[in-house]
# Entry
Amino acid sequence: MAYVTWKLETLERFCSDVFEAFGFDKQDSGRISDVLLTADLYGIESHGMQRMVRYHKGIEKGQIHRDAKPEIVFETPVSAVIDGHSGRGQLVSAFAMEKAIEKAKACGIGIVSVRESNHYGIAGYYAQMASKEGLIGFSCTNSEAIMVPTSGRKAMIGSNPIAVAVPADPYPFLFDASTTVVTRGKLEMYNKMGKPLPDGWALDENGNPSNEAPRVLANIVGKNGGGIMPLGGSTETLGSHKGYGGGMVAELFSSILSQGVTSNECCTFPDKTGICHGFAAIDPAAFGDAEAIKEHFSAYLEALRESPRAEGAEHIYTHGEKEVFAEKDRRENGIPVNDGTMVELLDLCSYLKLDFAEYFPGYEPPAEFSGFAGNY
Amino acid sequence: MAYVTWKLETLERFCSDVFEAFGFDKQDSGRISDVLLTADLYGIESHGMQRMVRYHKGIEKGQIHRDAKPEIVFETPVSAVIDGHSGRGQLVSAFAMEKAIEKAKACGIGIVSVRESNHYGIAGYYAQMASKEGLIGFSCTNSEAIMVPTSGRKAMIGSNPIAVAVPADPYPFLFDASTTVVTRGKLEMYNKMGKPLPDGWALDENGNPSNEAPRVLANIVGKNGGGIMPLGGSTETLGSHKGYGGGMVAELFSSILSQGVTSNECCTFPDKTGICHGFAAIDPAAFGDAEAIKEHFSAYLEALRESPRAEGAEHIYTHGEKEVFAEKDRRENGIPVNDGTMVELLDLCSYLKLDFAEYFPGYEPPAEFSGFAGNY
# Structure
């Protein structure tokens, strides 16, 4: 698949205009765009602009309620439960994380559990909202069931990512990972390339390991059983129960504390997805001198990066470092967007009566995409 | 290795007497024994009575300071930092978790970070202190470096377990797992059996995968490099960076917030180990009706257990269920102790001038252990 590179500013203007055309106000459109483009800046293409088509479908199907406003339904000085009323996931989530940050600044800690939201993009975005203010941030979400529990054959848990962001020098710590071994996007990538899946990723409809991407994906879509293994694989030898447990922790903070929809039922309703999130912020000053804590952590991160490398390895990364490098490069040199996504954006413009050529002058979809236009 | 089975009451009396003989008071001896025997009741032999010899060595070497009292060095209504002054890990940790519980009952949430402690046994014990009071409990610890970070060749992070306990019916949820793929005890078991290590567990001194238990263990002891892989293996294909990130989260709550000794330096001092812990308690009532939240979670756990099983699988467990079954069996039928441990206990009795035969009448070590006595 070929890529074409665009300046960040171009994509920012385009994304904002798209969401304004969908009827979101300027501020909300800016927030949704910022979440999507942060993913693209970090090189996490699966969660960037290529999701716009799914959001469009969600609005059209009525699962995303454009005008919904998040509502605080329970609150203490250190905690809150928010009902998202099926609003846009990014907007519900930014509201919830701001609430957690406010509580952490006032009390030292704030935990907010959210029900009835929608897909929220990269988990790390919200954790970083806290770390940008000198706090430790957490974010997790449940999602459509994709993870098969240890010894099971049916997906019962989402990809359930957990993100943790912590202030550090010279760059912050940002851990953001699904609790499945990989996400569905990776399977789709292998499918497109016609390559067999690596061992240890997926299960067939009988709960046996499978390397067949088309079979596993068809089963997922048809809800015929099978799915993706927890981090640690499908048996306890490599720690399957640990990834499964990590997924449950994400479930606890999202769907359990908020009494929302658990992953096994997410995305089975006509008028909502039911997706739930969990957010927390902790002020390091609740544990002493925040600056000294930051220095202590930064020194440990440096020791990790400078520790002896494996034979043939070029770099030991600490979490969030790759994103820092990717962002620097993409802010300078532009963001690559693949032709498949470009064709979707072309369609979106025709649907929303936006002038595609104004944003992307001279772009022509390659011949192999002629059948796609108007069909997404 | 052969096992001999003893009643729980026998082992309780023996353990308490041993720690009293070491000079701990009755209450403290009872607490240390309870942590150890809870591990044995749960079938986690590696963290049970077989650790007594290590604790003895720790006291003799001066790394465990018998008379130290934990001290609160920083505190807010929702948080505290405790200096363990190198006291017994179980005592420092029970004190810290009680503090977290007290804060959660008063404010909804309590987080306590501990520095300068010692090995604390099973992480889950402390998380369960909270869940037994209707709260959600968390516990984590750092430890002597054993985990090699992704692309590294030197162990820089401990086995760094994280435990989460949540009230549920008919039994509570208890997730307790190292963030390495396995713990060192598993390697020692394979070594004793003369079996090659499974793929995906360990790394040699050059950072390459190794199946050789003797080589890996010798390297660990000699600090020559290599060690155990993070959950997810040694490359990003199966999610190595995720287990590595999980280990960092345990480090954050233990050594970072308390400004204590990070895993890469734990156990390198003559007069302390420096081991750090993190504890948290959350009152579900800070998010609504605690009973309704418990019912909602219990229903999801039941749905997981009742979901379709993989071909050939007999049971889908939820976390903590195996421990419930093991405890029931062992309370009724006794706790199996292996001969190697029995010989260590015999030695311990002779060191402490306790009458071994009074606790374990008729026990004779098998002939192959004749060389071990007096040598542990």
